[in-house]
Amino acid sequence: MSPAVEVLVRTVAVLAAFLVLPLLVGQTEHKVMAHMQGRLGPMYAGGFHGWAQLVADGVKFAQKEDVTPAAADRPVFRLAPAVGLVPYLVALAAVPLSPGLVGADAPASAVLVLAATAVGILGTLMAGWASANKYSLLGAMRAAAQLLSYELPLVLAVASVCLAAGSLSLTAIAGAWSPWWLLWQLPGAFVFLVAAVAELQRPPFDMPVADSELVFGAYTEYTGLRFAFFLLAEYAGIVLMSLLFAVLYLGGWKGPLSGDLGWLWTLLKGFVVSVLVIWMRVAWPRLREDQLQRLAWLGLVPLALLQLALTGVWVVATA
Amino acid sequence: MTGLDVAFAAAGTVAAASAVLSVTTRHVVHAALWLVVSLGAVAGCYLVLGAEFVALVQVLIYVGAVVVLVLFALMLTRAPIGPNEEVSASPLHRALAAVLAAGVTALLAAVLVPLARVVGAVRRGGPGTTGLGEQLFGTWVWPFEALSVLLLAALVAALAVAGMARGRGAGEP
User: How many CB atoms lie within 10 A of CB A221?
Assistant: First the structure.
C-alpha cells in the first residue's frame, strides 16, 4: 500500500469508528438506563427494539434550523462545537485496539490522548461565553472549574501506569500489563474512572449542565447539527475514556485467542466500562459544586499521589 | 527548502501572526483565544523539530490548563462580547511596549540567527523522550527542583494572601 492510500484508509477507519461507536454507546445507554429504571426505552424506530432511534435523532438534528443568537459572538459561537469535537477524534486515533490496529501509532500516545482531551474543554468555554446567555456562562464556568480540578488526578493516574510500564506509548503499556496490575494499580484505576466520568461531565458530575438550574449549561443556545456535535463529543468521550481504561488498566487485547481476536477483547472490555459509566449515571444523584471540588482535591488527588508513590517504590524495588 | 523547512516556517508564521493579533485585538476573550492559537503553533514548531514530548506537554499545560484558567478568570470578572475600550492602553504605553518588544526580538535574533546559519536546514533530532528525561533529572535536576520550590512558595503565598483578605472582610466567618 502506498503511504497516501494508507493514510486515507486509516483516516476513514478512525472516522467510521468515531461515528459508529458513540451511537452504540448511546443506544446502550437508552436501553440499559431504561431497564434499570423499570421501563422499555425507545421501541419503535427501526422496528427491532428501537435500534434506529439515534439515527432518527441524527436525521432530526440535521433538519433543524441552525440558529445563532443575535447577541452572540458569531465566529466563536460557530467554531465552538468543532473545538469541542475534534480533540476527541484526534485522541481516538491514538488509542490502540491491538498491537497492529491503531489509527496513528504515536510514541507518546498516552500524553497525546491527555493533551487532546484537555483541549476539548476550550470548546465548552467558548460556547458558554459566546452564547451571550447567563445560564451558558455559568455552565461554562462550572465546567471549567470542574475540568481543571479533575484534570490533575487523571494525569497523575495515567502517569502512575506509564511509570509501571516504563513507557508513554499505550501499545507498550498494554503490552507490559499483567493481571497483578489489577490489584497494584487499583487505586489509580478508581481515580481514573471517577475523574474520567467527571471530565465528561456525566452524572453524577453533571453540575455544569444541571437542567433544573442552568437549562443545558454552555449548550443552551445551540440547535441542530452544532448541538448534535456537542452530544457526539460527549458520547465519543465515553468511548475514548472506556477504551483508554481498558488499555491502561484491563490489559487491552490480552485474553484467550488474543493473537487473532485481540481487538475484540479491547472493544469488549471498553464496552463493559462504558456500561459501568452508564450505571453510574443511573445509580447516583448529582453532586453539588462544593462536593465536586472536595472530592477532587481532598479525595482523588491524594489517592492518585499515593498510587504514584506506591508505583514508584515498587518499580525501584523490583528493578 | 525541505518539507520540514516549510512546515516549521508555516507553524512559526502562524505563531507570530496570532501573537500579534492577540495583543492588538480589543476583545479581551478573543485575545485569550488567539493566545491558544499562538501556543498551539509553538507546539507545532516543537513537533517539527522532533521534540514530540515537549510539544504535547506544551498543549497539555499551556492550552489545556493555563489558557483555560485565564479564560475562567476573565469570565469570572468581566468579559463583555464585543470590543472593550476600557482595557486599551495609552499611546505612551503602546510605544513603550513596542520598543521593549523590538528590543527583545533584536536580542533573540542576535543570538539565534548566527546559530541558524551553523545548523542550516531544519532537522528532526534532539535527545527524544528518554534522553529528555535523563537530561532533566540528571544534568538539570537542581534548577528543576529549585523551580518546583519556587512554585510551591508562590502557591502557599497565594493561599496566605487569600486567607488574609478573608480575615479582614467585615462580618465574614
Answer: 23
Are A129 and B71 within 8 A, CB to CB?
Answer: yes
Residue A125 has which C-alpha cell? 468555554
Q: Is A162's Cβ below 8 Å from some Cβ in B?
A: no
Better pLDDT: A61 or B152: B152
Map grid coordinates 437508552 to a residue: A30
Mean pLDDT estimate for chain B: 82
Of B33, B64, B72, the CB nearest to A115: B64
Place of cell 485575545: B31
User: Per-residue confidence at B171, pLDDT binned at 50, 70, 90?
Assistant: very low
Identify the CATH number of the domain defined by range B1-83: 1.20.120.1200
Q: Please report the pLDDT score of residue A137 as a whole number.
A: 85
Measure the CA–CA gap between A155 and A162, rounded to whole angstroms: 10
pLDDT bucket at B119, cuts 50 / 70 / 90: low
Q: Looking at chain B, which residue has its C-alpha nearest residue A131?
A: B81
pLDDT value of residue A272: 92
Please identify every stretch of chain A with a pLDDT value under 50, giving residue numbers as ranges. Answer: none
Q: Where are the domains of chain A?
A: 3-318
pTM: 0.85
Cβ–Cβ below 8 Å for B71 and A76? no
Cα distances (Å, whole numbers) of residue A156 to A303, B13, B52, B58, B170:
10, 35, 20, 17, 40
